[in-house]
Every structure is written in C-alpha cells, then in structure tokens.
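Try this one yourself first.
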C-alpha cells in the first residue's frame, strides 16, 4: 500500500511503488518521433497551456523527475537541447557491437535505475552476458609487460603485497586503502569532521599512505578527474566508498549482479522513459535563460521559443549552466559553485577492426599504457564473444590537448601513436567515430568532480532551489554517483517540486 502525504497546497502524493506506464511508452513513442521529425518552425508553434513543470534536459535525471511528476498528475514538459534523448547515456548504434560511449555499467546499488528499467519492460544483461574488453597487456615507459610478469617486473614501483596489483587496478585498490569513508553512511563525505581530507589527492597519497612518485604517476594515468593534484582526496574516497557499498550488495545478494547493462544498449532506457511521457520531449530546445517572476518560470530557447510553467527542474551540467542567465540572479555561492566545479574529461576514438592484429605479435589485444592514447581496448561484443570494434579511451589531463584538434586530427594523431607503439596495428584500424562529452555544447565532461576545498565550500548547498527553479543532475546527488546519482537527484528534485505544487 502506498503511503500518502500532502503538499503545501493540499495535493495528495502517493509515495509508494512507482508506476511507469509501459502502455504509454508504446502509445506515445510514435507521437514522440513524429514531433521530433517536425521542422523547427512547426515545433516552435506547439502550444502548451497550464504547465505545472518544465524539466530542462532529457538525460536520466531530468527524465526521472519528469516521469515522477507526471505520475503524480502534474502536467510536465521536458526541453532537450540535443537532437537525441539520453544526454551522457549514449549507445553507439553505428559501431559494430554497439559499445557505450557514455554511462556504461550499473552497479548492484543502482536500485532506482534497475527498478525503472524493469517497470518499462527492458531486459538487463549481467556480467556473464556482456562480453567486452578482456585481458590487458601493459606498456609502461615504452616496454610491454604481461600481467603475469608485473609482480616481479623492475618497472613495478610498489612494495610488498601491493606488487600484485595490476596497473589498471592501482588507482582503485590503492585509493581505497584505509579509506576513512569505508563503512560510513553514503552521505558522510559532506560532514564537517571529514573536511580535513578535502585536500589534494596526491598529498593524501604521499603523506597519509606513503606512496612513492612513480606509484602516484601510474595511478594518475586513467583518472576520472583532470589530475590527482587538482582533485580532492575526499572526492576519490567517496568514489571508492560507493563502489565498496555496491560490491558488498553484490556479494550478499545473488539477485544483484556486480555489473549490468540494458539489453540492446543503455540508450534504450532513457528512450523508453521519454516515450512514457504524455507531452513528448521537445528536442533541439537549447535553453539559454530563465526568468522567474515569483509565480511562474519562463525558459528561453535558442530558437526563439519560450515555455512557461509554475516550476522548473534544471538538470544541465554546470559547465553548460555557466552560460545560462538567471533573472533574478542566482545567490553568490551558487554562482561560484557553477563557475568553479568541473567535470572529468575524456575522449574516445572508435575504430573498425580490419584484421586480428594480436595474432601477429601474440600480445593480448587490449593495452593499458602511459602513452598519449592511454587505453586501447578491443570490444568482444559479438553474439559469441567475437571481436567487434576497438576504442582508444583517453581520460583526464591527457584529453585536454585534443581540444586543439579537429575530429580528423584526433583520429590521425591517435592512429599514428598506436601504430608507433604497436607495429602490428599498421593497417588494422579504420576510425569510425570520435566521442567526447567535454567537446559537446550540451555536455561539459563525464562525471562531476571536486577540487581540493570544494566539497567543504559547495557540496552541502548544491541542492538548494532558486525561487521556483530546482536543480537536478548527477552533480547534485548526495548518496549515489553516475547514472544512479542522476536518478537520485531527479527523485529529490521532483519531490521538492511536488511539495510546492
Ligand atoms: C564516457 C562516460 C562513461 C561513463 N560511465 C559510467 C558508468 O559506467 N556508470 C555510471 O553510473 N555512470 C557513468 N557515466 C556517467 C553518467 O553517464 C552520468 O553521470 C549520467 O548519465 C548523468 O545524467 P544527468 O541526467 O545528470 O546528466 P546528462 O545526461 O548530462 O543530462 C543533461 C541533459 O541536459 C541537456 N542539456 C544541456 N544543456 C542544455 C540546455 N542549455 N538546454 C536544454 N538541454 C540541455 C543535455 O543535452 C542532456 O541531455 C559515464 C559518463 C561518460 C561520459
């Protein structure tokens, strides 16, 4: 039985299990596609009267908020700047094997996301059903090293038992050592007692854990921020504490596999959520300004259209929000947070495979390296685990230099670097796509991260509403991270909006 509670205006809210409607999904998908196909002028003429809420952004957080508000009887319209649904969830349907270019893995702790997928009738694949990148070899300081040789290798900088940790696992395992957040509630990272760890991660690794420079250099190769000296240790501690929570769930609950993906590609989930909305998502609606007159919010779009509703939920990532004008202005602390908080960077270069190059040099197909292309992986996503495509995946500081290149130059630069490092790759690759959220107008980066000092200054305040505007998005999540963080934030923003409806 659902619990019922009342809003300030007396509206009754059902707080029990949610009812995403599969019937609506099927019924409205045709109309969503029809509206998406209309020319801009016709879409601009669409008239929405009596909207209770606008949701800006058709990523997971915005869509989850929109679905929840609709379930509670509100008239909701979602505006999306891109010409597709899903935001940072993006399955590449034109690359063999359909790899994920954005949000990829759901952990055992992704309760809201799994619940939504199953309510919409989507199937999920467990770790044994998604065959992907397999064994790595390592290329460090110009030398190839096999996994079996790493513990005894002279280039291994670690001591004692740590020497067993493979290079691609170093960041995860070593960052989690003596983690003060381990076993704490998931929101402990913002408590004042832990603010002493809001310091550079490199400092923490050196001074608290005693790691040497080379260990820290290798940990920093594939970093989900920009550089560890520019990352709060508290941010990394939180990252691994959430991972630990998920791992514990997977270990104790056989029904919750450690990793899952949506069958047919993760994009199927936001698409199904969007299609379940009665008002189809308006695509190509880039919002550049909000006006709040105290009783209504108007969102102004780049194509000259305006949409007005009683409240708005804004799920844009901060690097995009920086360019958006608010009337009245945002409070100073919020403006500073939006200006200063950044997202990790990455760029992916996807390739078709023209030959099984690993049969020529007999090394494992995938490489984890300290070269400019960082990780080069062969996806095995064929029906029987056959190799399907390859990707060079560059994260963090190393990804910034690609800002100065066109897509063609990125592909050329990466191919040449790969061929220099591994001659067997000559003639084996054909670039088919470059993907980087950081390069996209509506993106800004991969995942939010906190620089030293930012957790203490901003993390407790990012969920505050501004008049009738609420803020959602993975960056505002308190407990979870990534895709589940997006769901958590959408739920919180929807409840805030409902309480004022
Ligand atoms: C390469 C990569 C790998 C990842 N891997 C994982 C993973 O394995 N597991 C995991 O949990 N998470 C992962 N993530 C993170 C995860 O994808 C995101 O945290 C999550 O999808 C964010 O959802 P969101 O709704 O908060 O933001 P978004 O998905 O960014 O949604 C915001 C929406 O707002 C739209 N928008 C932006 N500006 C405007 C504007 N001005 N007007 C209108 N609309 C606008 C955007 O187009 C977008 O659709 C990964 C991300 C990337 C990029």
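Now uncover the answer:
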């Amino acid at each position: 039985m659902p619990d019922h509670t009342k809003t300030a205006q007396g509206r009754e809210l059902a707080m029990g299990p949610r009812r995403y409607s599969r019937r609506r999904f099927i019924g409205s998908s045709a109309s969503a596609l029809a509206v998406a196909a209309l020319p801009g002028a016709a879409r601009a003429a669409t008239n929405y009267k009596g909207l209770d809420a606008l949701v800006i952004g058709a990523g997971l957080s915005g869509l989850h908020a929109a679905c929840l508000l609709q379930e509670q009887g509100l008239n909701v319209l979602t505006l999306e700047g891109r010409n597709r649904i899903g935001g940072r969830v993006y399955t590449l349907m034109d690359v063999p094997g359909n790899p994920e270019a954005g949000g990829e893995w759901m952990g055992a702790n992704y309760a809201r996301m799994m619940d939504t997928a199953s309510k919409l009738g989507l199937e999920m694949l467990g770790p044994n059903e998604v065959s992907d990148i397999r064994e790595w070899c390592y290329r460090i300081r110009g030398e190839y090293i096999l996994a079996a040789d790493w513990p005894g290798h002279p280039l291994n900088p670690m001591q004692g038992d740590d020497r067993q940790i493979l290079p691609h696992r170093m960041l995860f395992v070593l960052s989690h050592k003596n983690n003060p957040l381990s076993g704490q509630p998931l929101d402990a990272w913002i408590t004042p007692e832990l603010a002493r760890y809001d310091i550079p991660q490199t400092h923490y690794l050196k001074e608290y854990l005693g790691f040497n420079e080379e260990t820290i250099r290798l940990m920093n190769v594939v970093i989900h921020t920009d550089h560890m000296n520019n990352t709060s240790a508290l941010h990394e501690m939180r990252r691994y504490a959430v991972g630990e929570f998920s791992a514990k769930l997977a270990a104790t609950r056989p029904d919750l596999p450690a990793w899952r993906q949506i069958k047919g590609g993760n994009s199927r989930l936001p698409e199904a959520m969007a299609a379940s909305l009665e008002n189809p998502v308006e695509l190509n609606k880039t919002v550049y300004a909000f006006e709040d007159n105290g009783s209504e919010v108007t969102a102004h779009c780049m194509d000259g259209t305006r949409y007005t509703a009683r409240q708005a939920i804004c799920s844009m990532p901060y690097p995009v929000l920086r360019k958006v004008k608010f009337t009245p202005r945002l409070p100073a602390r919020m403006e500073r947070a939006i200006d200063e908080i950044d997202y990790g960077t990455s760029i992916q270069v996807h390739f078709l495979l023209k030959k099984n190059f690993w049969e020529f040099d007999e090394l494992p197909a995938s490489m984890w390296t300290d070269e400019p292309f960082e990780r080069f992986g062969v996806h095995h996503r064929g029906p029987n685990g056959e190799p399907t495509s390859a990707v060079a995946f560059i994260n963090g500081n190393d990804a910034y230099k690609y800002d100065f290149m066109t897509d063609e130059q990125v592909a050329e630069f990466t191919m040449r670097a790969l061929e220099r490092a591994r001659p067997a790759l000559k003639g084996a690759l054909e670039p088919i796509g470059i993907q980087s959220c950081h390069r996209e107008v509506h993106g800004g980066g991969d995942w939010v991260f906190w620089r030293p000092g930012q957790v203490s200054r901003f993390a407790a305040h990012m969920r505050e509403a501004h008049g009738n505007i609420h803020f959602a998005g993975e960056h505002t999540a308190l407990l979870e991270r990534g895709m589940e963080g997006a769901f958590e934030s959408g739920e919180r923003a929807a409840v805030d909006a409902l309480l004022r409806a």
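Discussion: Residues 1-46 have pLDDT under 50 and may be disordered. The CA atoms of residues 257 and 409 lie 40 Å apart.
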